[in-house]
Amino acid sequence: MGAISECIALYHGREITVLLFSDRFIDGLVISDCSFILANAQIVDYPIVYCNDGFSKLVGYSRAEIMQKPCSSVDLLLYSY
């Protein structure tokens, strides 16, 4: 069994409660066709700590531009163009 990672998930642009995922689950998401981000729920404003390529393509920004932005900026990323 993999280690446990704490993160916050987004579903259709809406923040879902803090969830616990095993690293195995996250690895599965990384190779899937899902567009997603992971954020650190232990820091104020939930900074984005991971963004997969699918999400980057969806919003039209590079992964570097998305990383460390607060989750609250996701709506801006999704609807800015």
UniProtKB/TrEMBL annotation:
It comes from the Eukaryota. Gene3D superfamilies: PAS domain (3.30.450.20). PROSITE patterns: PAS (PS50112). One of its GO terms (cellular component) is voltage-gated potassium channel complex. Residues 48-81 form the PAS domain. One of its GO terms (biological process) is regulation of membrane potential. GO terms for molecular function: voltage-gated potassium channel activity. InterPro entries: KCNH_animal-type (IPR050818), PAS (IPR000014), PAS-like_dom_sf (IPR035965). This is PAS domain-containing protein.
